[in-house]
Amino acid sequence: MKYGVVLPIWQLTVAEAESLALHAEELGLDGVFVPDHILAKPATTQHYGGHWPDPFSLLAFLAGRTRRISLGASVIVLPYRNALVAAKSAATVDQASGGRFIFGVGVGWDEAEFVDLRLPFKERGRLSDDYIRAIKAAFAADIPQYSGKYVSFAGATFSPRPVQRPHPPIWVGGSPRQRVRPLGAALRGAGGCVASARPRPRRDREGLRDLA
């Protein structure tokens, strides 16, 4: 069994996140994970806060500060970014970490955030299913191709590809209400599937006190 910790980045500076990641590595934990929001709408701020660094950028920074511990997302909300942008960011973190990235993904839950990002909330399951297939296709070849309902590409180089082959472990996080089931078919053989509820801030703070 392996153990990891989700960093509550909504209440941490980048320096504090770095310190906790280094301490987690020193304690022998197996992974540190960061969550994802682009806009902090009231449903998010009332439970967590309004401070949400970009998870890919933060993980790339932590990759340069750590040596052993796995670095993951808990979770990247797939509809928030173009599939190829997410694929390029994930591949870059995997390169920067020397193959320590865990690609946690989800479909999202805050409808108001989807509205502001001009994204179809009711289609998020189908969109995420298409995106994960597109991302896996991008990871599979130097000149990949894919044709789906929401994403299509061909005739261009995708590089760098991830260190881990065929791709980093892809884990799904969410609750049954978040429609994560459509991702099942796209994730066959992807390396893992994890379902969980949204984090509980009070429990997270208690866990961080123990870590400190």
Defining traits:
212 residues; alpha/beta; TIM Barrel; two-stranded antiparallel ribbon; 8 helices; globular
Number of DSSP E strands = 8
Termini Cα gap: 22 Å
Give the helix level as a range of percent.
25-40%
Q: Into which percentage range does the β-strand content fall?
A: 5-15%
How would you classify the helix and strand content by structural class? Answer: alpha/beta
Major sheet characteristics: 6 strands, parallel
Query: From the 3D coordinates, which CATH architecture would you assign?
Result: Alpha-Beta Barrel
* Unreliably modeled segments: 189-197, 202-210
Order of helices and strands: EHEHHEEHEHHEEEHH
Give the CATH H-level superfamily.
Luciferase-like domain
| Assembly annotation | single chain
Rg, alpha carbons: 17 Å
Q: How would you describe the shape?
A: globular
Total separate domains: 1
* Structure annotation, total helices: 8
**CATH fold descriptor:** TIM Barrel
The first-level CATH class name: Alpha Beta
Overall residue-averaged pLDDT value:
88
Give a short summary of the structure.
The chain is an alpha/beta fold and 212 residues long. Helix content is 38%, strand content 12%.
